[in-house]
Specification:
The radius of gyration is 22 Å and the shape is extended. It is mainly α. The protein has helices at residues 2-8, 13-32, 34-62, 69-88, 90-124, 126-144, 146-182. The longest helix has 37 residues, at 146-182. The protein has one domain. It contains 7 helices and no strands. It starts with a helix and ends with a helix.
């Protein structure tokens, strides 16, 4: 059994390649059509939340979950409500979700900046203080300009997705080469 599994692993490099190609396509779409692509992603998210909410409610009656039934009830209701809201207003939901992500990133930037400043004062040096101040300034700027930053978020995600997809393609071919060289 183990030998069969070991022989089949080299044949799976194409899955990583497929994921990389799909990721690159998503990155291109996020850069070339940010609003439309983001709306489609948000619709998928709404469908996911709706289905997950339904399954959470079903889990109450099947006793398949380990959590208390009240958590499944709360999760189910929130999932269904969120799914319906997102599906009924996908463009508004796209803006709200991206703005929320920007606000979360901004708050994290401010908190990380404060922690870096404290770390620098406690002995990690001037570099930590400078990075902390920079992080806090960027966080404050994002917080003040959350809506503008939210408009740029799909393009930034597209760039990061392109890079990630290219890396996945690269590692797929590296994996293929590795298994051809080292496994009979």
């Amino acid at each position: 059994m183990e030998d069969q599994t070991r022989r089949r692993i080299p044949d799976l490099w194409w899955l990583l390649l497929l994921e990389g190609i799909t990721t690159i396509i998503l990155g291109i779409l996020l850069i070339s059509q940010p609003a439309g692509t983001l709306a489609v992603i948000v619709v998928f998210l709404g469908v996911y939340w709706l289905i997950e909410g339904i399954f959470s409610l079903i889990r109450i009656f099947t006793h398949s979950g380990r959590a208390h039934w009240a958590w499944s009830l709360l999760s189910g209701i929130l999932g269904i409500v969120a799914g319906i809201l997102v599906l009924s207003q996908p463009m508004l939901s796209s803006m709200i979700l991206t703005t929320t992500i920007v606000i979360i990133i901004a708050i994290q930037g401010i908190l990380i900046g404060i922690l870096d400043i404290v770390r620098g004062v406690q002995g990690d040096g001037a570099g930590a203080i400078v990075l902390g101040v920079l992080s806090a300034i960027i966080g404050i700027w994002l917080l003040v300009n959350a809506t503008k930053a939210a408009l740029a978020l799909p393009i930034l995600l597209g760039i990061l997705t392109l890079i990630g997809g290219a890396l996945l393609v690269y590692f797929a071919f590296r994996m293929r080469k590795f298994f051809k060289e080292f496994l009979p």
